[in-house]
Amino acid sequence: MNETISAVIPAVLNKPETKPAAGARTETKATCCYCGVGCGVIVESDGQQVTGVRGDPDHPANFGRLCTKGSTLHLTASPVLQQQVRALHPEMRFRRDARRERASWESTLDYLARHVDETVRRHGPDSIGFYISGQLLTEDYYVFNKLAKGLIGTNNIDTNSRLCMSSAVAGYKQTLGADAPPPCYEDIEQAQLLFIVGSNTAYAHPILYRRIEEARRKNPALKMIVADPRRTDTARDADLFLPILPGTDVALFNGMLHICLWEDLVDAEYIDSHTEGFAELKSIVRDYTPKFVAETCGIREEDLVTAARWFGQSKAALSLYCQGLNQSASGTAKNAALINLHLATHQIGKPGAGPFSLTGQPNAMGGREVGGMANLLSAHRDLANPEHRAEVARLWGIDEVPAKPGKTAVEMFEAVRTGEIKIIWIACTNPAQSMPEQALIREALRHAELVIVQEAYKTTATADYADVLLPATTWSEKEGTVTNSERRITRFKPVLPKPGEARHDWEMVIDFARRLEVRMGRGRDGTRSLFPYEGVEQIWNEHRESTRGRDLDITGLTYQILEQQGPQQWPFPEGATEGSKRLYEDGVFPTASGRARFVPTVYQPVVEKADARFPFGLTTGRLRDQWHGMSRTGTVAQLFSHASEPAVLMSRQDMERRMMADGDLVHVTSRRGSQILPALASEDIRAGQAFIGMHWGEEYVSGRGNDGNGSHGVNALTVAAYCPSSKQPELKHAAVKILKAELPWRFLVFGWIDASQALTLQASLRPLMRSFAYASCTLFGRDKVGVLFRAADDYPAAAELVGDIEARFGIAGAEVLRYDDARRGTSRRVRLQDGRLAAVSLAGDTSAEHWLKEYLESEQPVAALGRLLLMPSAKAPQGFKARGRIVCNCFNVAESEIDEALAGQDGINEGTPEVVLASLQGKLKCGTNCGSCVPELKKIILVKSPAGKVAA
């Protein structure tokens, strides 16, 4: 059978790629692989490794700008890192209690084809599930969708885009008729009012925020309203900040529309000519009086009225929104309520106006275009529509597309847990970190008959559950297209050859599918393969044909046009010379009547409201320099300098009331799980609220857990309840209690690690983290790589465990300086190298950390310290000054250096806050490269500069 199967696999899937000559310097245009802004990058390579990246000045998404994450992309492609974290060859295990073993592609794919075929024969096609990713390319997405719905015959294919964009999709479709953001990035420059809600744009989409800053500089009349439960860096820049309570967005938008109706700020002519359903909505919003809405949202009534007037009176109002609206059990209603406001005031279909959903992932838009979700089909077709299913069946050359709805993300893992789905195929995503209610997700992965993980990184939490690991290519190695938030398609080619035995995602799918076709008997009756492609262009051309006559028609586009003319926006139908910047300028919408639809939206509170048992409202969100589960950004030590370790942020008032100090460990507990974290006071959070970065999974923070099975980061706490329309879970909000953790014994190890071993060390420590009540493990450093391991418990850990961890840091042998106090249960170990600190271990009393780590990072000679190096006192050496947290990652500028400059006598503090910022940038260079730290610099000036205090 192996020979028969192999015979139908065209040579193109197995032939080696042409590799650039080693040492030949090349520059290749590509796209950043992080957020949905879709920034163009120029990748510098020597044929074997990426040597640098810079922004593409010709790319219309970013015009040469890159954020801290994008500007360090080359560091994530380092061969030294790749060898430690990349999946480089197929691996299989045949018993759950066995380790995976290296296998050949032939045996692995034959095994999968046989196992999937047998499972479908025994249990039906719906016993298979695919969970894929918005980080796949459009071509990858397309063949996955065809494999599931066209060959196997199941609609059980969903994507991590369900966790971030599905409410935006449902909101657009319910109101405007299609999943198509109407505005474009140029509208930022043409807007008269920016309404940012549910988005910390300064962190989540930094390059768009640079455009916002520039637009406001050029147009001082441009106003900005920000609605957010936290006073984020984005909110601090606002002309009007609405600190709404979590989940009250529908009430806010309905209240603004109520005021616009009362003050005659709606466009009655536009409503009559281009919309339907307004009478029903009008009867609903009449109850959303300013008093009721202000009380519901927790804001001042006068601020609500101001926001409504600014919006209704503006000549061009542009809304920018993201997960604060989407990740909610009422996410679709939140999106629809905001779009209602735009339609009623005619803030749509014209320059500078419109509801603009900011995509979270680099190709979530492309995945939606090809129908790579459980309820969609190619080219924005609906699975529930029989005519749409018939159209796709004809295109694919199959009898029918199954009508039974597929399982969406949360439903899919529940079906795996109960045994309804036997085989789960996971590609380019990490549900053991990113899905809510982690206890259920991990139970599902343990119970599945077969877990297939198609992944570039072998170090993700999900990879631990893989029975079969398929090594995939990643950024700088892939070829295809992506679509960004403004409907702009970018084509890019690989910069580097495929590492090891890794394959492109589309290659794996096609190779597997052809083997499965043989087993299923397809081809014996003269039918051709459903997967005749020999390259990505053939896949894209078929996708292009599926869009003919649809709202996203791209029949006028080709790979050649994308390569020669650069990125293009859809729609771009046959005969067009360019794509459409913005949609619905003619007032015609892709609905049956041609009119936009008002949706009757009613405010529903968050699923879990704070109560006496769980008195805090927890929200989650992004950190500035990290992305998603950190499988990529977490390999770059300098990206930890801004937020170095996991923490829960609380209001200072709440911490003082509970007698907590910065750094104290606390139990954060919801109805689903618990995670111990350090607590930090934040001036940006109101009493009764708390915040944790969404990125912290068990790869970086864990512990024994209350049930002994381990705690699994922030998503051990979050809620799996989802929006009935979009099926997007309420990841943003949960009710928790926060109690001080009485863990008197502390343990800390940090040190420089050879770059070729640092990530391997970090991964090896992960199982040991579960031996402690609390443990975290992160990187630090810049030119060198350091690893920091922190743990706490209610009793000292076994000497063997402590010694094992110390030895992994090289803290062993006669050369190590030692101090032990058995009575106090404290110890200190110091490893020196060339007269400087190389590694330090502190057990029991860890209070000397602040200066010992600073000495290590600054690589200062320690000969002058003498006995102080080992004395139990936490007192720092005389004259010691800690640098503290890094604010500007590009130029390694610490907050202490900014404080010194602002306190100096060289005139930096003279003038307005804007002048002070310019002076500070001139002196320290901070904020002059990517600009990601500029909002924080403004905050520091406002708090610590006399000019800022006067302005405030």
UniProtKB/TrEMBL annotation:
The keyword Iron-sulfur is assigned to this record: yes
Cofactor(s), names only, from the UniProt record: Mo-bis(molybdopterin guanine dinucleotide); [4Fe-4S] cluster
Keyword flag S-adenosyl-L-methionine: no
Signal peptide: none
Keyword annotations from UniProtKB, A to Z: 4Fe-4S, Iron, Iron-sulfur, Metal-binding, Molybdenum, Nitrate assimilation, Oxidoreductase
InterPro entries tied to this protein: Asp_de-COase-like_dom_sf, BFD-like_2Fe2S-bd_dom, BFD-like_2Fe2S-bd_dom_sf, CT_Nitrate-R-NapA-like, MoPterin_dinucl-bd_dom, Mopterin_OxRdtase, Mopterin_OxRdtase_4Fe-4S_dom, Mopterin_OxRdtase_prok_CS
Domain 4Fe-4S Mo/W bis-MGD-type: 25-81
Pfam families: Fer2_BFD (PF04324), Molybdop_Fe4S4 (PF04879), Molybdopterin (PF00384), Molydop_binding (PF01568)
Family: Belongs to the prokaryotic molybdopterin-containing oxidoreductase family. NasA/NapA/NarB subfamily.
The name this protein goes by in its record: Molybdopterin-dependent oxidoreductase
